[in-house]
Every structure is written in C-alpha cells, then in structure tokens.
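Hi, here's the filled form for the chain we discussed.

Project: internal
Contact: R.S.
Residues: 440
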Amino acid sequence: MIQQILDLHIHSKYSRACSPSLALPEIASTCQIRGIDIVSTGDFTHPGWFQHMKESLVESSDGIYRVPRTPLQLPPTRGERRLVGETKFILGTEVACIKKHKGKTRRVHVLLFAPSFETVEKLNAKLSDDGFNVRADGRPILGMTCKQLLEYVLEIDNRMVMIPAHAWTPWFGILGSKGGYDSLEEAFEELTPHIFALETGLSSDPLMNWRVPMVDHITMISNSDAHSLAKLGREANVFQFENEGDITYDEIFRIIREEDRKKFLHTIEFYPEEGKYHIDGHRDCHFSCQPEQTKKYGGLCPKCKKPLVIGVMNRVVELAGRNEDHARAFGVTNKVPYKSLVPLQEIIADSIHVGWQSKKVQAIYHNMIDALGSEFHILLNIDLKTIESVTDKTIANAIDRVRRGDIHIVPGYDGEFGVVKVFGDREERGGVSQSELLLY
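And the returned structure, exactly as it came back:
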C-alpha cells in the first residue's frame, strides 16, 4: 500500500495577491519538503499559467502529471541538491461564479478538475469565445451561476468534477452567510447529484460539518488554498493506494465520490479557530463574538452599530441538526476522520519565542527536515524521542501538545486570522535555553 498526501486547491503567480514564486518547479520542490505527494496545478484557465503547465508537466499516469526530474537548488544558501519530479500534479483550478439567482446575488467559489490538457484547452477556448475574461486573474470571475457552470463543464467533458470551495465562508462559500445558499439543492437543483464533495475551508473542520444533516452524504475534503509556497499543505487529505499504477484521476475522484474509508484515511486540518472567518465580528472595531452573543446584540456591532460579519460557526449553528456530541458520534461511525495540526515553522517559532519567518526558525526547520524527513512525516509519524534528539525537548514537547490538541487559540473573525499558540503567554517552555536552541 502507498500512502499519499493530497492538496487539491492552490493558486499560481497569476492569481491576485499571490506570490511570484508560485511556479511549478518551486511548487514541486516545496511539496517534497512538506510531504505533499499530489497537488493541484491551480489556475488552469489563465493563458499564461496554462502555457507554463504545458511546458513544465508530463503525464505519468491517466490524468496525473509530473515535472520532469531535474536538479534544483533549494534553498540556494544551503548547498543541498533536491530532486524535482517526485511531486504529482492534478489539473485543477478555482473560479468565482457571480450572478443573481432566485432573487439574490450569489457569489460562490468552486473548484474545477479536468482529466487532461485537451479538456482544459476545450474549456478555456469556450470561455474565451463566450466573452469571459480569463486573462485578468488566475481565479476568473464568471458571470454565471454555479449550476450554469456545472452544465457548461459537463458538456465539455463529463469526467470534469466540481467541488464547492471553502463551503462556509461568508462572502464566497456555497453555504456562506453573504452570497451563498441554504442548501446544495437550492443551488444546483436537478444537477445536485453531481456534487459529491465540499471543501471545509480553513474556518471549519469536519466536526462542524457533521452537525449539519443535509450534507451527511457529502465527502469533506480539506486543502490549503495556498497563495504562497509557505502555505502549501496547511490543510490536506491522506489517501492510500494499492500501488503507483492505481494513482489516477478517476481513482482519486472515485475515492472521494464514494467516501471510501479504506482508501481515504483522514484529512489534515487547520484548527478552525485560526481561520479568518471562524466567529462573528467587526474588524474595524476589533470586536468579535460567538453566535449566541450575536443574537443578543441583534446582529450589530455593539461599538458602532453596523452589521457584524456573520462567521462560519454561526452559519453552521443556523443550519445544524445535531449538537457537537451527537455530531462527533455520527462522524466516528460514518465519516472520514481528521487530525488537526499546526505548521511546524509556527511550532518552532512559539517554542523559541520569535517570528516564524526569522532566520533562526528557518535554520531549525531545515535542520529537522534534513535529519528527519518531510514536515508531515515529522508532525504525524516521528516519535518524540527522535525529534528531541535532533532539536530539543521544548520542540518535541510542543509537537506532542499539538498532536494532543493542548494549545491556546484566539478565534479569527471578519477577515482576521485567529492566533494559535502552543504555549500560553506566561507558560514555561522548559528544555534547554534559547541560545542553545539557536545553535541548530
């Protein structure tokens, strides 16, 4: 059996507010460091990116692509040779559907997947011929409903797959409080059976989704929605295949469609409180609150009396049919499980009390990767004594606490990411001194 980690939602350098470093060889190399085996190309409707895809990728199995194996220096100051080519790619993108439907303007982001370059070329040509501007952004805005887009892509190739992205986020989630719907059936009508999965998004986790019976039959997937190399794999999916030849486009989506729990082992989650729309709030007033408080305030910010942005938790509660305990029991019996993690660089940063982008954190991080393997392998599999032998008792203890969920969180709201800390502000970190840690 071969275990693979999949991140099925990322972006390219052609998407707005995304890093210029997001090119396919760099994505492939970073995925090796993270431990991501299969990643979406992202942004395949953009002509510049699609040309880069055709120049950079070769098909290795049905619907699965690789960057040809060539040496690449990463990072350039460390003198290490890393081989690019092991990371597998699947052809995927995110688009925005914005159109008035059933009396409301709907703003819904969806993921699209295609089995071949030929299918993508047909879709891109049709979008251009029909007057849609696919050059302006890697995530184009299409003036059609998500149902109309589903009809559109299925006419081109019935193997194409649509999955609503970050399903609960207020502004662009299919079930979000601002531009979404109250059910999948309201959005897709007779085409609803084609929607067999939802992306949980950073502000929700599977447990929250299990509270809502109307999506009981839907498979929950989790992806990074990365806008930079550093964010690749912050959420992901762990699959198991019989052998390399079993890793195909059709098999990946069969596993998701059927929620095959023998093959779909678990998802890897952000702590949802860290997502930037987890609870309700008003960023301008630095105010946030839980759903029950929002009712008390009549949906208005108590400081300025403007409407609060209703977050994911509130929307889940609104549509829920189970409490958290019943949802957990349902999920354990019927659904793909999940594990919540904190990125390794953030764990190191909190352990030595400096920023995650600092040279000190990066030195420790790359030392751990060189000695122990990929980031996910360290976070999920390596025993604590081995981690301690390479780093320090403090970092090993921090990883143990993350695995057990013994962390401190200030929830995100209204576009502000939450704050996740392994250690409390006044908590003793233990282990050796910070000066000794920085020797690594």
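Let me know if anything looks off before we file it.
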